[in-house]
C-alpha cells in the first residue's frame, strides 16, 4: 500500500483537493454572504470576496428582536434538555452497565430501535398526547420530547463510561466499609465526570439542532427555536435579508462546531460514528 | 455478582437469592426515571400512531374518531400524490445512499493513505456533520440562489452562462440539486464509519497478498472489500433508512416544491397532518413507511445472522 507511484500520489492529492473544494465552497460562500452589505446582494455578478465587507449583518442577527428571542429560546430549551437528560440517564446507565437484567436489555434495544422509526408516526400521537395535558406550544412539552429523543445515545454513551470504571475500585471501597451511596459519590461520580460532560453536550446539541418537533409542537413565533425562526426567514424574506440570514446561520452553527471539536478524536477513530445521527 | 439472577436455580445459595432480589429492586428503581418518559413519550405514541392509521382522526375532531380499518390504505393506494411522494422518496434515498457511499468509500480510502494534510482533512470531513440540517439547507439555498448564488456565478465565470438556472425552482433540476445537498451533508458519517472499518482490516492480509504479487486493485477487491462487507452493509442500510425518513433538509430547501417534485414521504405526511389536519391518513402513511423499514431491517439482520453462522 505504501508503494504508490508519483502519478498515483498526484491523483490522490487532486482527489483530496476536489473533496475539500466540494466541502468548503458552500461554507465559504455563506461566510462571504454574511459580510456583504445589502447593495452587494443584488449585484448581477456576486463576488466571493465582498467589496465593502461589513459587520452589520452580525449586529443585526444579534439585535434583531426575532432572532435574539429565538436564540434565547433555543438556549433555554437546550440547557433544560441537557440537564434533564443527564439526571434521568445517569442512574439508568449505571444500572445497565452493572446489572444484567432482561428489562435493561429490552430497554436498550427499544431505545436504539426507536431511532429508526419515521418521526411522522411519533409526532402526531405525541402532539395529541401533549395537547391532552396542555403542553403543546410550551417549552416544557418540547423539552420532554427532546429528553426522550436524546436518551438512546445518552444511555449508550454513559453506560460505556460506567463500564470503564473498574468494578474492583467499587468493591475495594465497599470492603473498606463505605456504604453504597458513599461508593457512588466518592468513587463513581468523579470518574464519571467526563462522561457526564460529553452526554450533556450531546443532549444540548441535539436539542439545539432539532427542527421537526419544534416546528410541529410550537405554534407561536414567540416560542420558536433558532432553526424554526431561521427556516421561516428563508421562506418569506426578500433578497436583502440574505446577509443577516447567513450571519445568523453561522452563529447558530458555533455550538455544534465546538461540540464536534470536543468529540473530534473519538469521532475520527470511529468509535461513536454509528451512533450520532445529525 | 451481577449475573446471579441468570445462574441456574440449583447453584444459588440462599443469601445470594436475597441479594439478587434486593439488587433487582435497585435496578428497577434506577431504570425507572429513564424508562417512564420513554414509555409515555415513545412506546405509547408509537402504538397510538399505529392505531391512528386505522382511524379517520382529523384535527379538531378528536372525540368521534372512529375505526375505519384499511380505509386509509385503500385511499393511499389510489392517491397519486402518495405514489409520487413514494417514488420520489425511493429515488432520493437510493441516489443519496449510493452516491454518498461511493464518494465516502473513495474518501475513506484516501484518508487511510499516508498523505500530507491527512489529519486536517479528517477533521474537515466532519464539518458538514456538525452543522444543523436547517443551516445546511439555508447555506445551499445561498449557493443555488438564482441571482446572488455561487453556482450560477461559477458557471458564468467558467463561460457556461447558458447553464445558469433557478436550480431549486426548476422542475428538472430540483430533485438532483436536493440530492447533492443530501450527499454533502451525509458523507462525513459514512466516511468515518468506513474509515474505522478500513483500520480494522488486518495489515497482514494485505502484505500477504502483496507478496503473492496481487495488484492494488486485486488487493482492494479480494482483501479490503470482503473484510469491509459487514460495515458496508450496516452503514448503507442505516443511511437508506435515515434518508427515507429525512425531513428538515428538504423542507428548508424546497418545502417539497416545485410542483411536488421534491415531495418526500415525510414532507407529504407533514402536510397531510399539520396543514390539512388529516391525522389518521398521515399516520397510515407512517405505518406504510414502518413496514418498508422493518422489511429492510429484516433483510439486513438476516444477512448479519447468516454471516455470524458461517
Automatic annotation (TrEMBL), chain A:
InterPro entries given in the database record: BP-dep_ABC_trans_perm, MetI-like, MetI-like_sf
Instruction: Kindly report the protein's main subcellular placement as a broad class.
Output: membrane
The annotated topology with respect to the bilayer is: Multi-pass membrane protein
Which key words tag this protein in UniProt? Cell membrane, Membrane, Transmembrane, Transmembrane helix, Transport
> Transmembrane residues, as ranges?
12-31, 77-96, 108-130, 136-158, 191-218, 238-263
- A GO cellular component entry from the record: plasma membrane
Q: Where in the cell is it found?
A: Cell membrane
Q: Which GO terms describe its biological process?
A: transmembrane transport
Is Transport included in the keywords of this UniProt record? yes
- Pfam families hit by this protein: BPD_transp_1
Positions of the ABC transmembrane type-1 domain? 71-263
Q: Does the keyword Ion transport apply?
A: no
Record's family? Belongs to the binding-protein-dependent transport system permease family.
Q: Which PANTHER family does its entry note?
A: INNER MEMBRANE ABC TRANSPORTER PERMEASE PROTEIN YCJP, MALTOSE TRANSPORT SYSTEM PERMEASE-RELATED
Q: What is this protein called?
A: Sugar ABC transporter permease
Its source organism is: Phytohabitans rumicis
UniProtKB/TrEMBL annotation, chain B:
Question: Membrane topology for this entry?
Answer: Multi-pass membrane protein
Any idea where this protein resides?
Answer: Cell membrane
User: Transmembrane ranges?
Assistant: 27-47, 90-111, 123-143, 174-198, 228-253, 279-301
> Where do the ABC transmembrane type-1 domain residues begin and end?
86-300
Major localization class = membrane
Name the SUPFAM superfamilies for this protein.
Answer: MetI-like
Which GO BP terms sit in this record? transmembrane transport
User: Could you tell me the keywords of this UniProt record?
Assistant: Cell membrane, Membrane, Transmembrane, Transmembrane helix, Transport
**Pfam families recorded:** BPD_transp_1
Q: Name one GO cellular component term.
A: plasma membrane
The family line of this record is: Belongs to the binding-protein-dependent transport system permease family.
This chain belongs to which protein, by name? Transporter integral membrane protein
**Species in which this protein is naturally found:** Phytohabitans rumicis
